[in-house]
Amino acid sequence: MLIKRNFFCLFVLSALMMASATGVLKAQQPDKPSVKEPAIIIESSPAAEEDVVFVQVEQPPKFPGGMEAMMEYLQANLTYPPDARKDGIQGRVFVRFVVERDGTLSDITILRGAGGGLDEEAVRVVKGMPAWEPGLQRGEPVRVQFVLPIAFAL
């Protein structure tokens, strides 16, 4: 059990570090020519720049208390679905969400699921997370997309 828990912790930590190594998403000004830095817009409208979602920022969002606290939260709150346990279903569920400017989580969706009720359990646990410390770009809080892999192993 301890080995599985340590592997789970290492997996989550490495996946989070890989998730933070993606490119910056930002809106391009329609009246200015694009510069050398490529930009991709997740969500935006010309009238509402506050809708822009970044995938990498100068200071990424953080779970309150850091990675260790998030792993403790997941271990304490994840419940293996009985049907998945009975059917021997295990795997990783990748949950994508947006950490808002105030630290709340929104747009919680399954990026890649494992089935057997594992997807629903992962979403339930993420929805119950406390507010995060928001990501910062140029010292200002911004909306940041985050992908959290959650491993289920029997």
Beta-strand percent range: 15-25%
Taken from the alpha-carbon principal axes, the silhouette is elongated
* Domain module count: 1
Note the main sheet.
Answer: 5 strands, mixed
Q: In whole angstroms, how far apart are the ends?
A: 9 Å
Which runs of at least 5 residues are low in confidence (pLDDT < 50)? 1-41
Please tally the helical runs, counting DSSP H or I stretches of 4 or more residues: 4
Q: What pattern of helices and strands is seen along the backbone?
A: HEHHEEHEE
Portion of residues in helices? 25-40%
Helix and strand content put the structural class at alpha+beta
| Radius of gyration, CA atoms, in whole angstroms | 17 Å
Mean pLDDT reading? 79
Number of strands: 5
Task: Describe it.
- The chain has 154 residues and is α+β, with helices and mostly antiparallel strands.
- It has one domain.
- Helix content is 29%, strand content 23%.
- Strands 1, 2, 3, 4 and 5 form a five-stranded mixed sheet that branches.
- Helix 1 (2-19) packs across helix 2.
- The protein is elongated and about 50 Å long.
- Mean pLDDT is 79; it is low at 1-41.
Give the helices and strands, then pairings.
Elements: H1 2-19, E1 53-54, H2 67-77, H3 82-87, E2 91-99, E3 105-112, H4 118-127, E4 135-137, E5 140-152
Parallel strand pairs: 1-5
Antiparallel strand pairs: 2-3, 2-5, 4-5
Helix pairs in contact: 1-2
